[in-house]
Automatic annotation (TrEMBL):
GO molecular function: electron transfer activity
Designated name of the protein: Phytocyanin domain-containing protein
Family according to the record: Belongs to the early nodulin-like (ENODL) family.
Compartments it resides in: Cell membrane
Amino acid sequence: MDIFSRRLTSSFLFFLFLSFTEAKEILVGGKTDAWKIPSSESDSLNRWAEKSRFRIGDSLAWKYDGGKDSVLQVTKEAYASCNTSNSIAEYKDGNTKVKLDRSGPFYFISGAKGHCEQGQKLHVVVLSQKHRYTGISPAPSPAEIEGPAIAPTSSAAGLKAGFLVTLGVVVLGLF
Ligand SMILES: *[C@@H]1O[C@H](CO)[C@@H](O)[C@H](O)[C@H]1NC(C)=O
């Protein structure tokens, strides 16, 4: 391998590594006009959320007409009953970003009258730290990620170290 392709390969691996660790901004529904009453169950935002992966530090982003709609972050109970009267947070600027700063469930409903009842709601579950680096679907077990040379550990730091060692071995193998 010549020096140029070595450099290219190591930059590629470096960016691949970044893509595993960087916090992402995730557009809700994957497109700009997704915050609306779904036309069918299969079109619902929760179907989209089930296929997506949310990690601590990622942000959700909504784009909508702030004059007509809003995003309410609510409790599980308010989410289930579409109760808009006591939200945890209310956003109506049309360009809403919410940072997912902890693991566990987050519940959002539309503040527009009657919209939540017709399915305009979103439930996302943020994975806990120990699942952070299982970024590939279907998710490999921590042991697969760390490889046989490293003792199993449940800490995120251990996983990260394991990934770095694996990456190091790959890079060294190329040179
Ligand atoms: C909505 O929630 C508020 C506060 O929790 C509660 O007082 C109210 O009764 C609820 N409304 C309905 C229709 O359930």
